[in-house]
């Protein structure tokens, strides 16, 4: 169970832990802590609940992607409240196996965890009525993402913080000319003429979040 808010996390841990057939193996309040504790769990099939409230460079999306890469056998569920299709589709795109809204009834919440543990895709809550929009969002991200290399996506993500080419170069440990070359290629692949347009398209596709990292 990963949630940045102690009271919320304690309530969820208590609820899950008191349910027959379910056991809480670990809990964490941050992405770094989650990576560490999940890595220490010696089970072949684990359901990891990731609240979408994690912020900063290592936010909920970063954590989902990292857990998926390192623990492909685990089930990962995004957990949010009144989440719109954009949030749900982005969570699924980076590696989540499903999404559960905190507004669902308790029985549905627990059933979603069991279903995820049984290797089923789960979308529980209001988002279930927007499956079409969620699927469209995933396809749009895939379409944009596949056009760019890993390094180009990294450059674009840092550019979204509002840094200059020189500052991006310093952050990534490359030359400024290399950054400008990457940016030019990104503009060409996305069919845009400048950074603002590239970031706007990438933001709509859920590949970046515009603004400084927290």
List the SSEs and their pairings.
Blueprint: H1 6-17, H2 31-39, E1 47-51, H3 60-70, E2 75-80, H4 85-93, E3 98-101, H5 106-117, E4 122-124, H6 131-147, H7 150-159, H8 165-172, H9 176-190, H10 195-204
Parallel strand pairs: 1-2, 2-3, 3-4
Helix pairs in contact: 2-3, 4-6, 7-8, 7-9, 8-9, 9-10
Strand order of the largest sheet: 1-2-3-4
- Would you state the CATH class of the largest domain? Alpha Beta
The major beta sheet can be summarized as: 4 strands, parallel
What is the 3D form?
elongated
Task: Note the total helix count.
Answer: 10
Estimate what percentage of residues fall within beta strands. 5-15%
How do the SSEs run, as a string of H and E? Answer: HHEHEHEHEHHHHH
Q: Residue-averaged pLDDT, rounded? A: 84
Q: Which tags fit this structure?
A:
alpha/beta, four-stranded parallel beta sheet, 4 strands, Rossmann fold, 214 residues, 10 helices, 2 domains, Arc Repressor Mutant, subunit A, 53% helix
Structure description:
The protein has 214 residues and is α/β, with parallel strands linked by helices. The chain folds into two domains: 6-129, Response regulator (Rossmann fold); 140-204, Winged helix-like DNA-binding domain superfamily/Winged helix DNA-binding domain (Arc Repressor Mutant, subunit A, Orthogonal Bundle). It has helices at 6-17, 31-39, 60-70, 85-93, 106-117, 131-147, 150-159, 165-172, 176-190, 195-204, and strands at residues 47-51, 75-80, 98-101, 122-124. A four-stranded parallel sheet has the order 1-2-3-4, sandwiched between helices. Helix 5 links the parallel strand 3 (98-101) and strand 4. The longest helix is centred in the middle third of the chain and has 17 residues, at 131-147. The model has no long low-confidence stretch (mean pLDDT 84).
């Amino acid at each position: 169970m990963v949630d940045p808010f102690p009271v919320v996390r304690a309530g969820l841990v208590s609820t899950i832990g008191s349910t027959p057939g379910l056991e809480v193996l670990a809990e964490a309040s941050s992405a770094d802590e989650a990576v560490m504790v999940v890595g220490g769990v010696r089970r072949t099939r684990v359901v990891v609940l990731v609240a979408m409230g994690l912020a900063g460079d290592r936010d909920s999306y970063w954590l989902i992607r990292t857990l998926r890469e390192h623990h492909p056998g685990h089930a990962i569920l995004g957990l949010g409240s009144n989440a719109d299709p954009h949030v749900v589709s982005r969570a699924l795109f980076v590696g989540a196996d499903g999404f559960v809204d905190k507004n669902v009834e308790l029985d549905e919440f627990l059933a979603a965890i069991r279903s995820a543990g049984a290797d089923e895709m789960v979308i529980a809550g209001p988002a279930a009525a927007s499956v079409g929009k969620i699927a469209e969002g995933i396809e749009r991200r895939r379409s944009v993402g596949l056009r760019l290399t890993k390094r180009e996506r990294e450059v674009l993500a840092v550019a979204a913080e509002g840094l200059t080419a020189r500052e991006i170069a310093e952050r990534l440990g490359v030359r400024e000319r290399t950054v400008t070359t990457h940016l030019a290629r990104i503009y060409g692949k996305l069919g845009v003429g400048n950074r603002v347009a590239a970031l706007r398209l990438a933001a709509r596709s859920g590949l970046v979040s515009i603004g400084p990292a927290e």
